[in-house]
Design goal:
Length: 450
């Protein structure tokens, strides 16, 4: 055996290097590279004989296996997973503290137990009494739901052998530790060992395992990136603490799509599905108000109407204010410049406030046209037609460009009763503004039909 060498390891992602570095070369974090101690250099792995049952065969001689999805009973969660939970699948659900991960998975466990499956819910962060209290409040009590409060991986494996469940939920993977690995729970080595062991058990027994993962301050999953590669499905639970709305997105899914979004609402009785979120992001005003326009945004494969509101106020300050909520500030600044330069709309001496209704965040360029029309309506103090919606990206030249999912957006607008849809058919933002105000005056203009 050769002489041991000293290595350095990143505490965030597990990246190793023979020399110390102030910044991690993998996750780009500063001050996370620490000395890992001497590591012995061993001989390389050599080849060995392969048993007949494990020898490589032509792919055409391997019998296909149908991956059947078992619904969890929560339609929005099944939508994200691709129809339900696959036997032997390892699913990682991450999210910020307090967003509702444990509440959602407790509801999943309850629905599965009520359907006749035996579920083991392992809480490494709360006691069984605390979980029982929350389950009683949310109506998630069932005789087939088994609770355990353990942080020792070997004890959790013993619980699985004794209970023999059909579904295992571990909350969370960063708080469980193996006694065979040095280091505290949540460390790179511990997270690797815990995840790899639970995934091995899942594959060997066709036992679906749901893991809860913590996130760092920048929103990424804590621990090594290998954790995301090991699991079959990576779901992100998103939401704002100021609102009750929550979204579940799949960033990785070996058994289904990755462009679906599940919508939930946090209530006093737990978490509730929102099958039709079309009413959540529009105001309840019965009379059209100036400075408002509806955009048809895409959340995954789902088209959602979102009302954009704008307010223009004369400013006496040398630099007028630009305040946004739910939209990109740099995008709004660009649209203000386009409106002033291409449409002759003076805005440089006014304070501009732009916001969305319901706390949703619009990040796609397809909302550009709706934002521009809301600003134009606020500037002229004239309300647009309440049955008007807009979709389109605006370039610096003022051109309106088509966006992805236009047929689906148009179908959703038609279903919700929007009679006028202004999109890339208007060609230029100046023409779109003219059509919007002509529609508000009930003038007959050539507006693109559905």
């Amino acid at each position: 055996m050769a002489r041991p060498t000293t290595s350095f390891r990143c505490t965030e992602c597990g990246w190793t290097t023979p020399k110390w570095a102030g910044r991690c070369g993998e996750c780009q974090q500063w001050g996370t590279v620490v000395e890992a101690g001497p590591t012995a250099v061993t001989q390389r792995t050599t080849s060995t004989l392969v048993a007949d049952a494990r020898i490589a065969r032509p792919i055409t001689q391997i019998a296909p296996r149908e991956q059947s999805h078992t619904p969890t009973g929560i339609g929005e969660f099944d939508r994200v997973l691709g129809g339900g939970v696959v036997p032997g699948a390892a699913i990682l659900l991450s999210g910020e503290p307090g967003v509702g991960k444990s509440t959602l998975l407790l509801e999943v466990a309850s629905r599965a137990a009520q359907s006749g499956q035996r579920v083991l819910y392992v809480s490494a962060e709360e006691s069984t009494a605390q979980v029982r209290l929350r389950a009683g409040r949310t109506g998630a009590l069932s005789d087939e739901l088994y609770l355990a409060s353990e942080t020792d991986l070997s004890v959790i494996l013993g619980q699985i052998d004794q209970v023999r469940p059909s579904l295992v939920i571990v909350d969370s993977v960063q708080t469980v530790a193996s006694p065979l690995i040095d280091g505290l729970a949540g460390g790179v080595a511990q997270v690797k060992e815990v995840a790899a062991t639970l995934i091995r058990v899942a594959k060997e027994r066709d036992l679906p395992v749901l893991l809860v993962g913590h996130v760092t301050k920048d929103g990424t999953i804590a621990g090594p990136r290998m954790l995301e590669h090991l699991v079959d499905v990576v779901c992100q639970f998103e939401g704002d603490r100021q609102t009750a709305l929550r979204f579940v997105r799949a960033h990785k899914n070996r058994f289904g799509p990755t462009d679906e979004v599940g919508c939930f609402e946090m209530t006093g009785e737990g978490i509730a599905e929102v099958a039709d979120p079309s009413v959540l992001f529009r105001s309840n005003a019965t009379v059209p108000v100036s400075g408002t326009c509806v955009a048809i945004a895409m959340e995954g494969r789902r088209a959602i109407p979102v009302e954009v509101q704008a307010l223009i106020v004369a400013s006496k300050a040398p630099q007028p204010r630009r305040v946004v909520n739910g939209v990109d500030s740099s995008r709004v600044a660009m649209l203000l410049a386009v409106l002033e330069r291409r449409c002759g709309m003076p805005l440089s001496e006014f304070d501009v406030y732009v916001s969305t209704v319901g706390g949703i965040r619009l990040t796609e360029p397809g909302a550009d046209l709706a934002i521009a029309l809301a600003i134009a309506s606020a500037r002229r103090e004239k309300a647009l037609d309440g049955h008007l919606a807009a979709i389109g990206e605006i370039s610096l030249a003022g051109e309106i460009r088509a966006v992805a999912g236009a047929p689906q957006r148009a179908a959703e607008a038609r279903r919700l009763g929007y009679r006028t849809l202004i999109d890339a058919g208007a060609v230029h933002v100046r023409e779109a503004v003219r059509l919007a105000f002509a529609s508000a005056r009930d003038e007959k203009v050539d507006v693109p039909e559905f």
